[in-house]
């Protein structure tokens, strides 16, 4: 299981960072929590905008978002995820507890930790070459992010460690099968589409929108198929 070392370390850092954030959450004034949330929103917007410019084919990006949203809305991924965590929230929430719910923390943390070029490229490098460098670097970033995120968004961030383990681990294990189609262009388009979702995460954190972000998630994987269609590339 050496190829999963980076994913296991990443999962552990999210668990550790979230735990530390939850411990210190009690001593953070509400005003500071609110401002930290806005600061996280601005940082998330920056990450999204920066990654969105890695795309090379606007048509692939547009079609991925349209078709992916149709799939996501048809299945209504967001509703199923929220329903599950709302049921969980009733069991773990304290009376009179305010602030973001378990579902909000989980969804926003999952998107921040798992959508981006470091996840895709890092998992590919780990699966094909047993090169854990990028995932270990990402682990350190997620350690810091999870501390701040958990201190403002609660236990849902801690639970996102399970998603990191499953999602990132699956990409690593499937790397040998996906390698022939995960070209530089495909990764660029996946990063672009994923970064648009990250922009949505930032807008939600800032309170500007209430996008059902999980319903956009299928869009990130459609470039794998669409980039194989030569007629989408205009000379």
Secondary-structure element pattern, one letter each = HHHHHHHHHHH
Structural class: mainly alpha
Helical coverage, percent range: over 70%
Number of spatially distinct domains: 1
Low-confidence stretches: none
- Kindly state the number of beta strands: 0
Computed over alpha carbons, the radius of gyration is 18 Å
How would you explain this protein's 3D organization?
The chain is mostly helical. It has one domain. Helices cover about 75% and strands about 0% of the residues. It has 11 helices and no strands. α5 (about 100-115) runs parallel beside α8 (about 155-175). The chain is globular, with a radius of gyration of 18 Å.
Write a concise synopsis of the structure shown.
This protein has helices at 5-25, 30-52, 58-75, 77-92, 102-114, 117-129, 133-153, 155-173, 175-178, 184-205, 223-226. It is mostly helical and 235 residues long.
């Amino acid at each position: 299981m050496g190829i999963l070392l980076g994913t296991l370390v990443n999962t552990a850092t999210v668990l550790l960072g979230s735990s530390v954030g939850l411990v210190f959450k009690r001593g953070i004034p509400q005003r500071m929590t609110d401002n930290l949330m806005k600061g996280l929103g601005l940082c998330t917007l920056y990450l999204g905008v920066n990654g969105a410019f890695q795309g090379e084919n606007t048509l692939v990006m547009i079609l991925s978002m349209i078709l992916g949203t149709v799939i996501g809305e048809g299945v209504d991924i967001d509703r199923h995820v929220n329903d599950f965590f709302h049921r969980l929230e009733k069991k773990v929430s304290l009376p009179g507890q305010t602030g973001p719910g378990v579902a909000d923390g989980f969804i926003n943390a999952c998107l921040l930790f798992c959508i981006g070029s470091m996840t895709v490229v890092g998992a590919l490098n780990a699966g094909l070459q047993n090169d854990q460098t990028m995932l270990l670097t990402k682990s350190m970033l997620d350690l810091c992010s999870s501390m701040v995120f958990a201190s403002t968004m609660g236990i849902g961030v801690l639970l996102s460690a399970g998603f990191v383990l499953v999602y990132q681990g699956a990409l690593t294990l499937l790397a040998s099968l996906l390698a022939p189609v995960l070209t530089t262009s495909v990764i660029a388009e996946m990063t672009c589409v994923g970064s648009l979702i990250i922009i949505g995460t930032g807008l939600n954190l800032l309170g500007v929108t209430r996008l059902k972000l999980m319903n956009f998630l299928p869009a990130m994987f459609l470039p794998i198929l669409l980039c194989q269609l030569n007629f989408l590339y205009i000379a």
